[in-house]
Write a structure and sequence with these properties.
heterodimer; A: 109 residues; mainly beta; Immunoglobulin-like; three-stranded antiparallel β-sheet; 44% strand; B: 113 residues; seven-stranded mixed β-sheet
């Protein structure tokens, strides 16, 4: 069965420090992986998807099929990065996402 | 920028009552979804809807749930007889097609008492 695991519920880093939000998945086929972000009092929005291989707001994520991971990284955290981050897996066309439980990131000034 | 809008933002209902949660997807989108998030838990897929019919649904989406696109602009989720465990945040989402980004609404917080 498909599953997404985000081991850290809470993560605090100082401004300017590197940040890594962990995501592991289980799926036997070829997954599509996404990171969604929810800023305070705002809606869920797509941050990035692995097939785009792009950097958004300084964040990158690399799909590692060997480790079944899709960790989100940013070299220098900013205060505005404080938010809830959800890793999600899609196993078919149609945007049926399997979400992780989310990691709440706090960037300390 | 176009947005998915959901009404109401908060709904309180008595157990056993029917509720209808409303969503207005982005106008040129063709795929529609409902997700829910019980407090402290993960966001869970409920159902996807395309071409006026359900394309996929999860185990959560039992006979108590139904979806409808009654007038070409609204997309509704009905819970026939609410239970306490239906209390959650319900998110609507829409997408232009099946492989592009899904845009989420702000959510409706449903509280069953």
């Amino acid at each position: 069965a498909q599953r997404v695991t985000q081991p850290e519920k809470l993560l605090s880093v100082f401004k300017g420090a590197p940040v890594e939000l962990k995501c592991n998945y289980s799926y036997s086929g070829s997954p599509e992986l996404f990171w969604y972000v929810q800023y305070s009092r705002q809606r869920l929005q797509l941050l990035l998807r692995h097939i785009s291989r792009e950097s958004i707001k300084g964040f990158t994520a690399d799909l590692n099929k060997g480790e079944t991971s899709f960790h989100l990284k940013k070299p220098f955290a900013q205060e505005e990065d404080s938010a809830m981050y959800y890793c999600a897996l899609s196993v078919s066309t149609g945007n049926q996402f399997y979400f992780g439980t989310g990691t709440s990131l706090t960037v300390i000034p | 920028e176009p947005e998915v809008t959901q009404t109401p933002s908060h709904q309180v209902t008595q157990m056993g009552q029917e509720v209808i949660l409303r969503c207005v997807p982005i106008s040129n989108h063709l795929y529609f979804y409902w997700y829910r998030q019980i407090l402290g838990q993960k966001v869970e897929f409920l159902v996807s809807f395309y071409n006026n019919e359900i394309s996929e649904k999860s185990e959560i989406f039992d006979d108590q749930f139904s979806v409808e696109r009654p007038d070409g602009s609204n997309f509704t989720l009905k819970i026939r007889s609410t239970k306490l465990e239906d209390s959650a945040m319900y998110f609507c989402a829409s997408a232009r097609d099946s492989i592009t980004e899904a845009f989420f609404g702000q959510g409706t917080r449903l509280t069953v008492v």
